[in-house]
Amino acid sequence: MLAGCSVALGLASASRTRRGRKRRHKAALGKDSQLVSQHEPRRQLLRKYLLGLVGVITPSATSNAVRADDKAVPPMALAVKGETLVPMSPSGWQNLLSKADVVLLGEHHNQEQDHELELSVVRMLHERALKEGRPFSVGLEMVQQRFQDVLDSYVAGKIDDDTLFKATEWERRWSWPYELYTPIFQYCQKQRVPIVALNTNNETLGKVERGGLEELAEQEWQQYIPDRQGFAEMGKTAEFKTYLQNVVLPSYGLHKRLGILQRTVTGQVLDSPMTLKHFVGGRILWDETMAGAAVRAMDARNGQRGQVCVLIGGDHVKYRYGVCARIDRLARLSNADAASPPTIASVMLNPTPADTLAPADQDGLALQMAVVSGQPRGTAQKNEDIKRQPIPLADLILISRFGSSSAA
Known about the structure:
The structure is a single chain. Strand 3 and strand 4 form a beta hairpin. The strands form 3 sheets. Strands 1-4-3-13-9-5-8-6-7 form a 9-stranded mixed beta sheet, sandwiched between helices. Strands 2-10 form a two-stranded antiparallel sheet. It has 16 helices and 13 strands. The radius of gyration is 21 Å and the shape is globular.
């Protein structure tokens, strides 16, 4: 067992990457004005900045087609158990994910090794689902819901990779390297695995970034946030408020320092910088939309509950209150009469200390997020805090390993 709330994984590059990132961060912040062009969407501007910090691991030649063999070195798998990381055998972690109804794979969008892990997990889950006769699909944060018909045509073999890239407006609406995702897409097409568009349409997200959730039309509420009561109640919990403080607010601060809050995801220039309220509204709309689409993909077909493997950014997976808790809430709502509640497995792929709440001078992962809420009014200890159950980073961590297939 590996003990300690912030556990060093022995990844030699982690601390060097972090120190280098801090130096590049300071340099990049001095060039904020150079980031902004006339009509670029905010997402593309942020991507430019992040690529300046960490670069992009470009795909190798073998990544441009589905690999024929299964001899890749198995990843290191570590279960998060409180303040401890527990190594798992290949059969152990594969069984864990296979039993889940929704599997969340938290990726770094620009890292090839993460996408190779995703392909191996998708293949494993699909093969097991086939043996069990269980419906299986892959959900994508990268594609907005308006393009579901395009994904269906691709899986059916009616269009090719280039047409998929153009028809989903990938460069404008997502912009991270398409080539890193094509091996997964090609596998799904070859095996006829349904691909599900999870994300909010830019047009709706832009409305919220301009004027808040109040700008949503009734049809948009029904499409993206049908469970308004549960959505509102979740926002009042101590756990969500802690997640907001530790994960979402720092993201807003970064956008503010970069000077890119005056434009929406669609590239529209605002009269004044986006408010925190509107920024948070856009973020939780994004998460709620993806959670709802994942649940619909999972819901029982022909009397059998399906499994969906979701490819999504790590920030939406870590510490549960991005997408995971929303899926849990919505799945229980739609499966209220089921014999057993749906299950969710959250996975972080190749996480670094910078992906967690670890202090800047620490070379380990923060495995838990402490939750503290104020004492309810009218109690004797009203000025003290109530400590709640800490929120884990994820259920499982997968770390890429390189070498021969006989490696331990």
